[in-house]
Amino acid sequence: THSTPLEASQEVADLIIDRIKAFGPTQKKKFVMCLPTGSTPLLVYKELAKKCREGKISFEHVITINLDEYVGLHPAHPQSYYHFMEENFDIPPKQVHLLPFQPIPPHTTHTESCAEYESLITSLGGIHLLFMGIGTNGHIAFNEPASSLASRTRMIKLDQDTRRANSRFFENSLSNVPTHALTMGIGTILEAQEIVLLALGDGKAQAVKEALQGGVNHLCPASALQLHENVIIVTDNEASKNL
Ligand code: GLP
User: In CATH terms, is domain 5-235 a member of 3.40.50.1360?
Assistant: First the structure.
């Protein structure tokens, strides 16, 4: 835990840089990194962009994929996760793979798109490093409470709690927030080689406590991380105050 969000974010950025460097450019496969959206990762992305400008890291041998995406938002919509990644993570588009967004190609169902995403992850050789945040209700990606801990990439109906929390990005209007999303499953997430979860602010304190100190259970999706052998939880003091 760290005293400020900036220090916590710097630790995550340093960890990402360390893993990319350790993987090295010599491998046949690229380093596959799964990334989150939301407000939590913003300082990490700023820090990574800074280190990139300073020549301390290169993303040349990195492929990025994403955890989730709203259903029904055009990619150009300011709140689509496609748009978010374009704005916040500077990497050539051919190295980026995002969950399918609307409009999906004709005759493709969300089920097919999600299955394709799973195949893509397999063909990339799996996820080396998965970075994520946590929802105030304990969700990870868009796996809402009561998601199966074995779930795979799929479409999910968003909880009212999550829609309310995210309405701040949609002019505070709940009706503007999409009702559904595509999300990587909890089972899919748990197959990543390493997971880093960043939690900032006292709004996350209860979710962090339940995830780390509660029993593993489907009502707190983040508690599934207890089943993984290689997880690092980084917080500021506010987010860890209930531990
Ligand atoms: C969003 C995203 C999650 C994110 C979480 C927390 O709805 N789907 O991937 O981790 O909620 O968001 P924030 O970082 O803005 O608090």
Answer: yes
Nearest CA to ligand 1 atom 3: 141
Residue nearest to atom 6 of ligand 1 (CA): 135
In this predicted model, what pLDDT tens digit does every residue of 86-145 receive, in sequence order? 999 999 989 999 987 445 666 678 888 899 999 999 999 999 999 999 999 999 999 999
Evaluate whether 212 touches 175 at the Cβ level (below 8 Å): no
Residue 54's alpha-carbon distances to 22, 49, 71, 160, 176, in angstroms, are: 19, 9, 37, 42, 39
pLDDT at site 102 = 47
3-state class of 219 per DSSP? Answer: coil
| Distance in angstroms (rounded) separating the CA atoms of residues 232 and 221 | 16
Percent of the chain exceeding pLDDT 90 equals 87
CB contact at 8 A, 9 and 1: no
Check residue 202 and report its DSSP letter: G
For residue 215, report the distance from its CA to the centre of ligand 1, in Å: 22
List the chain domain ranges: 5-235
With a Cβ cut-off of 6 Å, ligand 1 is lined by 36-40, 67-68, 132-135, 141-142, 162, 166
